[in-house]
């Protein structure tokens, strides 16, 4: 295996078609909702960043705390010595902006006269309670806390030596300042408490025997601290050209007419944003309450594919390969991960205990997507545009499969005994959503640590946030789209 890992890492980059097939096969088996979930909608695979974690990993519907050991995980003479995890927050409420748009849509339905016959769907929606309120504004819901506790239980069972009771006091947690991330980190700690003390009541984080999570937005919300990104993408009214063009394109126009007929409202009163909010409301009702909402009945699978593409276009152009700065703004976070791994290697080589066996970092989909793009993952041969929806039906970049709620990217550093050379002594694997992630530049599932560092040499040595995010001139900008 060592020789195979070495030869693959030093070989040329795998052909795009082969790499695409490898990545797709890694995730295709985990992309559909489980049959045992009566509330799951046929739309579930298309909710983008609003996707439930169990729709990506359907085995969790049977037993949400049972770990699934990927057969590609290293074992035998290789022992995990450090785990660095980047974790998206759990299931959340919609934002105030989304709730107000839903309220606007609900108002349209209620203005239909009593003589309007309409469809059964429209009538059901008028009776469906609008239970969302402004105060919710993206906060973590109880299901999101459960997402985190269960993830903690599974990871602790999968890597028992790293998550041992002795290491509990050496856990290092970092989080975004957003409440949903802070609360996710606290819930993860509660899950570990359950692992160590099954059956006992859950304590407050302040009563646990470990350091509390530390807020670090420069790491977990690096995009807020990158002036070039903020000016050229976030606040630039032309940066999301393809998103806006798709909203007025033929696919969305067909969908607008169809939804207007279903709801029995004038098509002129609808727009792409309202249609997308209706679609996401189906996903929120499912994710938060586990119910099949009448909002789901407004759409069929073909509609869902269009709306998924609209969401993916935004993620692609604002957080991924659309602009180089999207991914380069995450260099500091990438380097921070390897600083932890370097320190663990150094301590192990000196026969010292690893000071931080487990490092947990809680952020957002907007934290994970730029980092994965920086590393070369899920890059399609052609960019996603407003005009190639049909050509991109089999695209790799599907945000719902990559960053659902509770998404996690995990680096596992191993110390391997009986290595023939010092270089072979340390190896690393990556997992995305608890499945081994093949290396972006080869088809291998394990890398020699030094070879992996060499592959990402440019990012580790040459990517400086101060330079990447520096603006050479001031651009004229407008408010965020």
From TrEMBL:
Chief subcellular location: membrane
Any coiled-coil regions, as ranges: none
Enzyme class: hydrolase
Subcellular localization, as worded in the UniProt entry: Cell membrane; Endoplasmic reticulum lumen
SUPFAM superfamilies: Phosphoglycerate mutase-like (SSF53254)
Superkingdom, taxonomy of origin: Eukaryota
Family annotation (Pfam families): His_Phos_2
Protein name: Multiple inositol polyphosphate phosphatase 1
Naturally occurring in which organism (per UniProt): Peromyscus maniculatus bairdii
Gene this protein is translated from: Minpp1
């Amino acid at each position: 295996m060592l020789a195979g890992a070495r030869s693959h890492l030093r070989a040329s980059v795998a052909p795009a078609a082969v790499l695409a097939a490898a990545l797709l096969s890694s995730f295709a088996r985990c992309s559909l909702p489980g049959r045992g979930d009566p509330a799951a909608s046929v739309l579930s695979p298309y909710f983008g960043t609003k996707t439930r974690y169990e729709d990506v990993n359907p085995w969790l519907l049977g037993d949400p705390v049972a770990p699934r050991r990927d057969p590609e995980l290293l074992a035998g003479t290789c022992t995990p010595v450090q785990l660095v995890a980047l974790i998206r927050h759990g299931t959340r409420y919609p934002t105030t902006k989304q709730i107000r748009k839903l309220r606007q849509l609900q108002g349209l339905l209620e203005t239909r006269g009593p003589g309007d016959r309409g469809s059964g769907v429209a009538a059901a929606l008028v009776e469906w309670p609008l239970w969302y309120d402004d105060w919710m504004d993206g906060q973590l819901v109880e299901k999101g806390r459960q997402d985190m506790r269960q993830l903690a239980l599974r990871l602790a069972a999968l890597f028992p030596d790293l998550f041992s009771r002795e290491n509990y006091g050496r856990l290092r947690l970092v989080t975004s300042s957003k409440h949903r991330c802070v609360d996710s980190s606290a819930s993860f700690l509660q899950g570990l408490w359950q692992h160590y003390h099954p059956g006992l009541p859950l304590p407050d984080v302040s009563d646990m025997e470990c350091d509390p999570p530390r807020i670090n937005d420069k790491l977990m919300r690096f995009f807020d601290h990158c002036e070039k990104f903020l000016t050229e993408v976030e606040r630039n009214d032309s940066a999301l050209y393809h998103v806006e063009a798709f909203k007025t394109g033929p696919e969305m126009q067909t969908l607008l007419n169809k939804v207007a007929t279903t709801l029995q409202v004038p098509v002129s009163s609808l727009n792409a944003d309202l249609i997308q909010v209706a679609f996401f409301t189906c996903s929120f009702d499912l994710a938060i309450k586990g119910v099949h909402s009448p909002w789901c009945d407004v759409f069929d699978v073909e509609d869902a594919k269009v709306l998924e593409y609209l969401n993916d276009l935004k993620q692609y152009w604002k957080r991924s390969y659309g602009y180089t700065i999207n991914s380069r703004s995450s260099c500091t976070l990438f380097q921070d991960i390897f600083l932890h791994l370097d320190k663990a290697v150094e301590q192990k080589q000196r026969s010292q205990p690893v000071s931080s066996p487990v490092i947990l970092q809680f952020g957002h989909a907007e934290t994970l997507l730029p980092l994965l793009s920086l590393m070369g993952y899920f890059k399609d041969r052609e960019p996603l545009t407003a005009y190639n929806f049909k050509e991109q039906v089999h695209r790799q970049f599907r945000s719902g499969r990559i960053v659902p709620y509770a998404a996690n990217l995990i680096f596992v550093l191993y110390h391997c005994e009986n290595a023939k050379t010092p270089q072979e002594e340390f190896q690393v694997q990556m997992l995305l959503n608890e499945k081994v992630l093949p290396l972006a530049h080869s088809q291998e599932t394990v890398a020699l640590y030094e070879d992996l560092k060499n592959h990402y040499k440019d990012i580790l040595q040459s990517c400086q946030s101060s330079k990447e995010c520096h603006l050479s001139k001031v651009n004229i900008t407008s408010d965020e789209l």
